[in-house]
């Protein structure tokens, strides 16, 4: 993140605006609307200021600002093309400790003016860090059409009851549940429909009910597939659950960019491989899920790909079922499907393969036990999970079991991620080619003549290193 977004309380703070045109007028108006005391320095004010002229909180000084004008000043907006005036104002304002924004000159700015969606008291500020104001404005337009104007009313209603809720409902977890119930239910609908009095009455009654019953929070577990890495491949349901969770259990297969989608306040517990290369044993993860759910928490177990495909998700929730803890499973795009799409290798194709099998190439002591007869068949693609480490014995075993050495095969490393790499070769040459490329995994191995389709269908060309999370 390049800049830090914050929302400033500007009530009774001093703001200096330098300039007489439309931008200066807009800045002055915005600052005054937020409760600031504004002084506009300009020889004469344009028509854009007409509506501001009679406001007691906007003063006009028909001259350039001097050092003493910045005493106690928090923010200074400059909307002028006079380079000398810009420089001088910046120097004076900075010396007085004020933050400066010069319109259309990002390099001269201490802070950026975001695009604003105003549903006061609800406000959304959008910044592209100066990269593309147009993109910011487009997003603003979309949000404007997406968020009913009545949301401001809803926020106001909630704000009016915050104190009462804090007294009546003692724990933070319960208060959050309370507000969620309100927001997802008829009270919010009533408020959004404009029926404020009825909404207030219902809300008051609902607070009483919660205070009387003190319902203990019911914990539950969400077993969620996060897909292979690209955050765009997270399902809507997974995203919704990520926003709801109190605790998230994750491991190294969860891409950092996906972790940024998780509710910020949610507790995060890493249950993957430790530096000593030992994973938390399955039964300990299951026990942890049970314990956290019993504490009334909404626990999200985030899995790479799909939770039920080589993810041991089934084992993890068996214990939950035994303890009668409610859970739900949310599917994800599994690595082989992600790899297939982003490497341009269809797993089936009329001219190449009518079947595809998913297997694990994970072997104990380098020995891979697979049912070769069912794997090595014409017109069938094999996708191997966890095969990179054993790639040499794996490809050798395929050939020994009768697969043609020149059968096309590929490794898709870090599929769907900015650092995705694909090595396409044949069964005989794949292991050495992958070694030469220095692939580190996670990788999917795809074996079958469909691999040749990549020559035509390869489309994903990420920039190595890729964009920064959230950038
Ligand atoms: N449940 C997961 C698989 C977990 S097993 C799923 O459905 O995808 C872990 C294996 O998945 C890794 O060894 C690797 O073979 C594969 N894998 C996971 N993420 C991957 C990725 N981004 N690119 C390639 N392979 C991946």
Automatic annotation (TrEMBL):
It catalyses: precorrin-2 + NAD(+) = sirohydrochlorin + NADH + 2 H(+); uroporphyrinogen III + 2 S-adenosyl-L-methionine = precorrin-2 + 2 S-adenosyl-L-homocysteine + H(+); siroheme + 2 H(+) = sirohydrochlorin + Fe(2+). NAD(+) binds at residues 22-23, 43-44. It comes from the Bacteria. Residues 119-145 form the Siroheme synthase central domain. The gene is cysG. Residues 1-203 are annotated as: Precorrin-2 dehydrogenase / sirohydrochlorin ferrochelatase. One of its GO terms (biological process) is siroheme biosynthetic process. Its EC number is 2.1.1.107, 1.3.1.76, 4.99.1.4. Residues 150-206 form the Sirohaem synthase dimerisation domain. Pathway: Porphyrin-containing compound metabolism; siroheme biosynthesis; siroheme from sirohydrochlorin: step 1/1; Porphyrin-containing compound metabolism; siroheme biosynthesis; sirohydrochlorin from precorrin-2: step 1/1; Porphyrin-containing compound metabolism; siroheme biosynthesis; precorrin-2 from uroporphyrinogen III: step 1/1; Cofactor biosynthesis; adenosylcobalamin biosynthesis; precorrin-2 from uroporphyrinogen III: step 1/1. Then it catalyzes the NAD-dependent ring dehydrogenation of precorrin-2 to yield sirohydrochlorin. Finally, it catalyzes the ferrochelation of sirohydrochlorin to yield siroheme. The active site is at 251 (proton acceptor), 273 (proton donor). Residues 219-471 are annotated as: Uroporphyrinogen-III C-methyltransferase. This is Siroheme synthase. Gene3D superfamilies: Cobalt-precorrin-4 Transmethylase, Domain 1 (3.40.1010.10), Methyltransferase, Cobalt-precorrin-4 Transmethylase, Domain 2 (3.30.950.10), NAD(P)-binding Rossmann-like Domain (3.40.50.720), Sirohaem synthase, dimerisation domain (1.10.8.210), Siroheme synthase, domain 2 (3.30.160.110). S-adenosyl-L-methionine binds at residues 228, 304-306, 309, 334-335, 386, 415. HAMAP family: Siroheme_synth (MF_01646). GO terms for molecular function: NAD binding; precorrin-2 dehydrogenase activity; sirohydrochlorin ferrochelatase activity; uroporphyrin-III C-methyltransferase activity. In the C-terminal section; belongs to the precorrin methyltransferase family. It holds the Pfam family NAD_binding_7. Keywords: Cobalamin biosynthesis, Lyase, Methyltransferase, Multifunctional enzyme, NAD, Oxidoreductase, Porphyrin biosynthesis, S-adenosyl-L-methionine, Transferase. InterPro entries: 4pyrrol_Mease (IPR000878), 4pyrrol_Methylase_sf (IPR035996), 4pyrrole_Mease_sub1 (IPR014777), 4pyrrole_Mease_sub2 (IPR014776), CobA/CysG_C (IPR006366), NAD(P)-bd_dom_sf (IPR036291), Siro_Cobalamin_biosynth (IPR050161), Sirohaem_synt_dimer_dom_sf (IPR037115). Residues 221-430 form the Tetrapyrrole methylase domain.
